[in-house]
Request: fold
Amino acid sequence: MTASRRALPASRCLMCYASRALPTAPWWSRAISEEFCSAQAAACQHGLLLGAGGLVRAYSHAAAIALGKAGIVTMAHCAILDIACDYSFYGKLAVCIPEWGGVVEDTQFGGAVTVRVRIHATLVDSFCAKLTDASNGRFQAVQTGECFAAAD
Reply:
Protein backbone atom coordinates (compact mmCIF):
# COMPACT_ATOMS: atom_id res chain seq x y z
CA MET A 1 0.00 0.00 0.00
CA THR A 2 1.35 3.42 -0.87
CA ALA A 3 0.33 6.87 0.19
CA SER A 4 -1.40 9.03 -2.38
CA ARG A 5 -1.33 12.83 -2.19
CA ARG A 6 -3.13 15.30 -4.40
CA ALA A 7 -2.49 19.05 -4.57
CA LEU A 8 -4.85 20.94 -2.26
CA PRO A 9 -5.29 24.60 -1.39
CA ALA A 10 -2.77 25.77 1.20
CA SER A 11 -5.34 25.73 4.02
CA ARG A 12 -6.19 22.04 3.60
CA CYS A 13 -4.00 18.98 3.89
CA LEU A 14 -5.36 15.48 3.53
CA MET A 15 -3.53 12.17 3.16
CA CYS A 16 -5.15 8.94 2.06
CA TYR A 17 -3.73 5.41 2.23
CA ALA A 18 -6.01 3.99 -0.49
CA SER A 19 -4.45 4.82 -3.81
CA ARG A 20 -7.64 5.57 -5.77
CA ALA A 21 -9.94 6.76 -2.96
CA LEU A 22 -8.97 10.42 -2.73
CA PRO A 23 -11.10 12.40 -5.20
CA THR A 24 -14.28 10.28 -5.15
CA ALA A 25 -14.49 8.93 -1.62
CA PRO A 26 -17.46 10.01 0.50
CA TRP A 27 -15.18 11.01 3.36
CA TRP A 28 -13.26 13.34 1.02
CA SER A 29 -16.40 15.28 0.11
CA ARG A 30 -17.37 15.44 3.78
CA ALA A 31 -13.91 16.77 4.72
CA ILE A 32 -14.17 19.48 2.08
CA SER A 33 -17.76 20.41 3.01
CA GLU A 34 -16.84 20.64 6.71
CA GLU A 35 -13.78 22.74 5.79
CA PHE A 36 -11.31 20.71 7.82
CA CYS A 37 -7.94 22.43 7.98
CA SER A 38 -6.07 19.19 8.44
CA ALA A 39 -7.12 15.56 8.27
CA GLN A 40 -5.39 12.25 7.81
CA ALA A 41 -7.03 8.92 7.09
CA ALA A 42 -5.45 5.52 7.59
CA ALA A 43 -7.05 2.08 7.73
CA CYS A 44 -5.52 -1.32 8.44
CA GLN A 45 -6.28 -4.55 6.63
CA HIS A 46 -6.12 -7.70 8.75
CA GLY A 47 -6.58 -11.10 7.12
CA LEU A 48 -9.00 -10.10 4.36
CA LEU A 49 -7.97 -10.18 0.75
CA LEU A 50 -9.82 -7.42 -1.07
CA GLY A 51 -9.45 -6.15 -4.59
CA ALA A 52 -8.79 -2.50 -5.36
CA GLY A 53 -12.52 -1.65 -5.37
CA GLY A 54 -13.09 -3.40 -2.04
CA LEU A 55 -10.11 -1.63 -0.48
CA VAL A 56 -11.33 1.76 -1.65
CA ARG A 57 -14.83 1.12 -0.28
CA ALA A 58 -13.53 -0.27 3.04
CA TYR A 59 -11.05 2.54 3.59
CA SER A 60 -13.53 5.19 2.50
CA HIS A 61 -16.11 3.82 4.92
CA ALA A 62 -13.59 3.75 7.79
CA ALA A 63 -12.53 7.33 7.08
CA ALA A 64 -16.15 8.52 6.79
CA ILE A 65 -16.95 7.00 10.19
CA ALA A 66 -13.89 8.65 11.76
CA LEU A 67 -14.75 12.06 10.28
CA GLY A 68 -18.34 11.68 11.44
CA LYS A 69 -17.20 11.18 15.03
CA ALA A 70 -14.39 13.72 14.91
CA GLY A 71 -14.92 17.01 16.65
CA ILE A 72 -13.74 20.38 15.50
CA VAL A 73 -11.02 21.95 17.61
CA THR A 74 -10.36 25.66 17.47
CA MET A 75 -6.70 26.48 17.93
CA ALA A 76 -5.43 29.78 19.34
CA HIS A 77 -2.20 31.56 20.17
CA CYS A 78 -1.70 31.21 23.93
CA ALA A 79 0.71 32.50 26.53
CA ILE A 80 2.32 30.41 29.27
CA LEU A 81 2.44 32.20 32.63
CA ASP A 82 4.17 31.15 35.84
CA ILE A 83 2.76 32.35 39.14
CA ALA A 84 4.67 31.85 42.39
CA CYS A 85 2.50 32.26 45.48
CA ASP A 86 2.29 31.10 49.06
CA TYR A 87 0.12 28.24 50.26
CA SER A 88 -2.45 30.57 51.82
CA PHE A 89 -3.24 32.16 48.42
CA TYR A 90 -3.07 28.96 46.36
CA GLY A 91 -6.63 27.85 47.17
CA LYS A 92 -8.07 31.14 45.94
CA LEU A 93 -5.80 31.11 42.88
CA ALA A 94 -6.84 27.58 41.89
CA VAL A 95 -10.49 28.67 41.86
CA CYS A 96 -9.87 31.96 40.06
CA ILE A 97 -7.71 30.68 37.18
CA PRO A 98 -10.57 28.95 35.31
CA GLU A 99 -12.91 31.88 36.03
CA TRP A 100 -10.41 34.28 34.46
CA GLY A 101 -10.01 32.14 31.31
CA GLY A 102 -6.86 30.20 32.18
CA VAL A 103 -6.01 26.50 32.21
CA VAL A 104 -3.65 25.06 34.83
CA GLU A 105 -0.86 23.21 33.01
CA ASP A 106 1.32 22.30 36.01
CA THR A 107 1.57 22.93 39.74
CA GLN A 108 4.75 22.48 41.76
CA PHE A 109 4.75 22.46 45.55
CA GLY A 110 7.92 23.41 47.37
CA GLY A 111 8.75 26.31 49.70
CA ALA A 112 6.16 28.18 47.65
CA VAL A 113 3.59 27.04 45.11
CA THR A 114 4.41 27.62 41.45
CA VAL A 115 1.48 27.36 39.06
CA ARG A 116 1.96 27.22 35.29
CA VAL A 117 -1.06 28.61 33.44
CA ARG A 118 -1.97 28.58 29.75
CA ILE A 119 -4.20 31.46 28.66
CA HIS A 120 -5.36 32.93 25.37
CA ALA A 121 -2.89 35.63 24.33
CA THR A 122 -5.57 38.34 24.22
CA LEU A 123 -6.50 37.74 27.88
CA VAL A 124 -3.01 38.08 29.40
CA ASP A 125 -3.30 41.74 30.44
CA SER A 126 -6.71 41.33 32.08
CA PHE A 127 -5.56 38.11 33.77
CA CYS A 128 -2.50 39.83 35.23
CA ALA A 129 -4.61 42.78 36.42
CA LYS A 130 -7.11 40.46 38.12
CA LEU A 131 -4.28 38.51 39.77
CA THR A 132 -2.73 41.71 41.09
CA ASP A 133 -6.09 42.86 42.46
CA ALA A 134 -6.95 39.51 44.04
CA SER A 135 -3.54 39.19 45.73
CA ASN A 136 -3.35 42.87 46.77
CA GLY A 137 -0.21 43.21 44.67
CA ARG A 138 1.69 40.40 46.42
CA PHE A 139 1.94 38.05 43.44
CA GLN A 140 2.65 38.60 39.75
CA ALA A 141 2.37 36.40 36.68
CA VAL A 142 5.53 36.07 34.59
CA GLN A 143 5.20 35.07 30.94
CA THR A 144 7.62 32.22 30.29
CA GLY A 145 6.53 31.09 26.85
CA GLU A 146 3.99 30.87 24.09
CA CYS A 147 2.17 28.02 22.43
CA PHE A 148 -0.48 27.23 19.87
CA ALA A 149 -3.13 25.19 21.67
CA ALA A 150 -6.79 24.27 21.66
CA ALA A 151 -8.92 27.18 22.78
CA ASP A 152 -10.85 25.94 25.81
